Amino acid sequence: MVHTFALVLPRPIMLLRALASLAVAVVGAQVARKVYQFVHWHFFSAFSHIPGPPNPSWIRGNFGVLTLPRTQEWQAQYGPTFKFHSLFSATQLYTIDTVALHRIINHSEIYQKAPMVRTRMNTLLGRGLLVTEDDEHTKLRKIMSPAFGLSQVRGLTQLFIDKSLELSEFWAGQPAELDGWARIDVMAGLKAMTLDVIGLAGFNYSFNSLDKTKSTTELDSAFQQLFTQTSSRNLSIRPLIRARFPITRFFLPHSKKLSGARKTMDRIGMQLLQDAKAQILSGEKESDRRDLLSLLVKSNMSEDIQENHRLSDAVVVAQLPTFFVAGHETTSTATTWALYALAMHPEVQTTLRTELLSMGTDAPSLDALNGLPYLEKVVREVMRVHSPVMFTNRMAMQDDILPLGTPYTDTRGVQHDSIFMAKGQMVWVPIAGLNRDQRIWGPDAAEFRPDRWDSVPEAANAIPGVWAHLFSFLGGPHNCIGWRFSLAEMKSLLYILIRTFDFELAVPPESITTLRAAVQRPVVIGEEKKGPQLPMRVRRVQT
Ligand code: HEM
User: Fold this and answer.
1) Residue 186 Cα to chain centre, angstroms
2) In this prediction, does ipTM exceed 0.90?
3) Mean pLDDT of all residues in 75-102
4) Is the pLDDT confidence value at 241 over 80?
5) H or E stretch including 85?
6) Ligand 1 nearest atom to the CA of residue 472, by list position
7) DSSP structural state of residue 541
8) pTM of the full predicted structure?
9) What does the alpha-carbon distance between residue 101 and residue 409 come to, in Å, rounded to a whole number?
10) What residues flank ligand 1, with Cβ below 6 Å?
């Protein structure tokens, strides 16, 4: 009877039924694999015997309390390597063991950003450098690296200085009290300055964020829209579900705001690309230019198809949002923390100012900036104590034996000098945790003390960072491509701002906290709705 009925069903319905059965089978297989992994890792694998804090919630795991002080307490209790529970009680390895971290960040064929994380980034920012892996990543990195090399950054220093001067003029024009102090949210100004810089330096695009007389550009509005979506306060559940359960992407579309912002960015990106191509073809643009857009466009126009060097239009356009976000958010956060630290340590602010004022120029070269020893110590200490990017994660894409410098003792009392990482296992890479590790920096590791850089502890040599002795820009093939750019920009900002202004906090220090997110930005307790900010009292240096 059933057979007869099936035979008379119209073809489209039979097709739909077959597709539905297939979808159920695929989802069923995925769920079964996840359940198997979960049970195996939790109860039967060697991983299940790694010590770590108890799991307070099956849904949130230890996620709700995963702060720097808490992880430091766990380090003291369980050692540099332990296990914790993330969302839905999935186990995750935490390690500040430099031998293990060295392998994790240098073997990017084994340890990669988890597919779920990449999907989420892809949705927000497009298929930029941040989300690519393997050959695609190597190719992009090779093309773009010259835009961030020393000689290119040297050439950009005048732009960093000019934009820093523009910011200082903007602040100098803010209404002040009778005593000369003006109350300013320094983070807002620094964000505007760094966005202007990456727009011009990377893509020859003027955001004009600092020029309040000009109206906001279309790209700026789209960017702000996109940016609020990337902020941790605005994480809606929809993208998380889409990233975690790929099948839901068929029936859960992106939010309208996000789709609209992405469309605008893609359209303007395409226009910038077409303009740059036309300029190159007409000979208006010199062919040896090494700014990011020129390098991307040259690869886009390359005839070297055999070598697979040609980049599609879509890949070029996809780099814009990535660089706009990665290129301004972090540097503005780092410089905000620098001003915070200098306000909290007035004696350091005075010493720095004396050094900077000893230079008789408003337009120092990069070499001159790099030749200022106290500025170097201050910047290093800011990047150590206030690492703007707190952490990142990696997933083992294949089984691996992870070596450890410091063995751990499992819950049965057995000592191990390595960990078996099964394919799919996640590891937390604690950037700030390692930068403040007391085993390296001593008991005062959390204190801001620039003079500690006079004699770097021997143990800091083991930190596998691209910028020696610090993990702030990570290391290995995915190290921060913009690290030199960022340091030069930050030094230029401090050079101009500290020579021009005195800085004090405008709110009590205990009212400043941070949101729990990968990028640590300050917020004022009671004013969380305003988002990240740092209100300061700013006054022209009294001579
Ligand atoms: C203080 C400033 C900065 C800090 C602390 C910082 C930190 C980092 C870190 C930790 C990573 C590795 C992320 C991971 O693999 O999980 C990274 C990657 C990256 N950063 Fe930065 N960054 C800064 C400034 C910049 C600037 C100014 C740019 C661009 C102009 C930039 C562009 C990128 C890009 C494109 C990547 C991806 C690199 C790759 O995967 O090959 N960053 N950054």
Assistant:
1) 20
2) yes
3) 94
4) no
5) strand 81-85
6) 5
7) P
8) 0.89
9) 19
10) 129-130, 141, 198, 322-323, 326-327, 330-331, 334, 388-389, 392, 431, 472-474, 478, 480-482, 485-486
